[in-house]
Amino acid sequence: MINDLSVDFSGLELKTPFFNASGPLCTTLEELQALGQSNAGAILSKSCTLELRDGNQSPRYVDFEGGSINSMGLPNLGYKAYESFFSQLVRFEKPIFCSVSGLSISDNEIILKSLANHPHLNAVELNLSCPNVIGKPQIAYDPETAQKMIAMARRAFPGILGVKLPPYFDFSHFETMAKILSQSDIQFITCINSPGNGLVVDPVSETTLIHPKGGFGGIGGKGVKPFGLSNVRKFRELLPKSIQIIGVGGIFTGMDVFEYILCGADAVQIGTAFMQEGPEIYKRIETELNDLMIHKSYSKLEDFRNQLKIVEAK
Ligand code: DHB
Fold first, then answer.
1. Is the model's pLDDT at 3 over the cut of 90?
2. Does residue 26 carry a catalytic annotation?
3. pLDDT at 50
4. d(CA 251, CA 276)
5. How many CB atoms are closer than 10 A to CB 172?
6. Mutate to test the pocket of ligand 1, among 25, 69, 125, 127 (most ligand atoms within 8 A of CB)
7. Are 275 and 40 in contact (CB under 8 A)?
8. Nearest CA to ligand 1 atom 11
9. CA proximity to 181, closest of 151, 141, 139, 142
10. What is the pLDDT of residues 182-240, one digit of tens each?
11. Residue whose CA lies nearest to ligand 1 atom number 8
């Protein structure tokens, strides 16, 4: 039996609830077409800037036993290239999302106003949480700046708009951001971006694993999942139902997807595991999620979405 894995995402239909995180394997037209051919429920392009960027020096992405560390530095082809790609992705008949990460409020405004006129783009994910651009702090750790950026984005781009957030670790920070997001008339949030500025050491060579920023970079992989789940769960509690939530962080299996949906995620994205396994991962995860739902006698995602219970006190 095949379950119904579809998601109504702000009126867009995702045939499966998982797709790529903006980051790995979504920079070139060929990579985006491979996502189109895969079982991913949507196609999301690499965070774009006004102009093409080569990004930081290599080594800038390295897998290690506990996950991955990266400091890519926003290598991308510039927003105009992505605008030209979107029309070539329509044939895959799945929603097309563009991640936007301009280096200033005015860069983002130019990009968003241009994207607003694109006939084939379905949604924008405004990145407020890139940890890897030298000299640029993560916007979403500064609520005032984040609020201004979101207000500008809302004016510039009338379509389906969401923001990509970094992990928060304190209830007061969740509450501050939830207030801003609730008042901002956006359609979704994506959480979490990779916890920024981790450091992974190679004890043999006595060096850092990556070169940029003194070896500091965003961390992906299994250890990140508890924080992805906590951020989804907390924001689901604090935000109005009109704002949907995409969960990200440490997803490797169908069971991981199940856990995110149980915590309230509407859909999920996959970063490190997609980088390691390639576009075939979406077929494996679909099979695993489907089998798990059959085992649990669930036929659709609504049967268990946001149904997490607190374990009884003993
Ligand atoms: C990059 C990393 C991120 O976590 C992000 O959100 C955007 C860009 C990068 O280094 O390219």
1. no
2. no
3. 98
4. 12
5. 8
6. 127
7. no
8. 74
9. 151
10. 999 999 999 999 999 999 999 999 999 999 999 999 999 999 999 999 999 999 999 99
11. 74
- Give me the residue label for tokens 């199940």: 258
Q: What's the token pair of residue 233?
A: 């769960």
Which DSSP string do the residues of the chain spell out, in sequence order?
---B--EEETTEEESSSEEEPSSTT-SSHHHHHHHHHSS-SSEEEEEE-SS-B--SPSS-EEEETTEEEE-----B--HHHHHHHHTTTGGG-S-EEEEE--SSHHHHHHHHHHHTT-SS--EEEEE-----STT---GGGSHHHHHHHHHHHHHH--SEEEEEE----SHHHHHHHHHHHHTTT-SEEEE-PPPSSEE-EETTTTEESS-GGGGEEEEESGGGHHHHHHHHHHHHHHS-TTSEEEEESS--SHHHHHHHHHTT-SEEEESHHHHHH-TTHHHHHHHHHHHHHHHTT--BGGGTTT---PPPP-
76, 107 contact by CB (below 8 A): no
User: How many angstroms separate the alpha carbon of residue 296 from the centre of ligand 1?
Assistant: 37
Minimal CA–CA distance to 189: which of 152, 239, 224? 239
Angle at 129 between CA 125 and CA 135, to 5 degrees: 130
